[in-house]
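Sample entry was shown:

___
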Amino acid sequence: MYNFKKGATLDANTLIKEGEYEVVIERMTEGETPNGKRKIDLMLRIRDLEGQVHINRVLFDTIWKERETEYYNRRRINMLLGTQDFEDGKTFKNIQAIIDEMLGSFLRIKVVIAFDDYRNKDVNKIQYYMSSQHKPKKVEKKVEEVAEEDLPF
């Protein structure tokens, strides 16, 4: 079933209103710019939740590799990881392990409008990440014991 939602049909070039939005990480990839600068690109989709506007709109964010070290922006990565229920001190063996863990995760973002000198116009930027207030409930799987004589084979 499809339901019409006002605000979900805005032109993709229309700026999203500043505020907090519940999103899902649809794509998260490690890559490199043509001049060799390493980055992680995120594609976040605004979730279809009651009261949210701009439903299904996509926002992009980039986490850059630090110039002085071999790490990506550790503050930004830690903020992103902090949106999930990981144990304190959890270790990831590499950036791909973080990407694998975060892909499909729900979180909340703070969107602002800022002037982009490169594009010479206002753009949406993600100011920070927070934990989702609408995480799906985990369902406990029940395992039923079946006697061997009840099996059909």
Remarks:
- The chain has one domain: 19-150.
- The longest strand covers residues 19-32.
- Strands lie at 19-32, 38-46, 58-64, 106-116, 121-131.
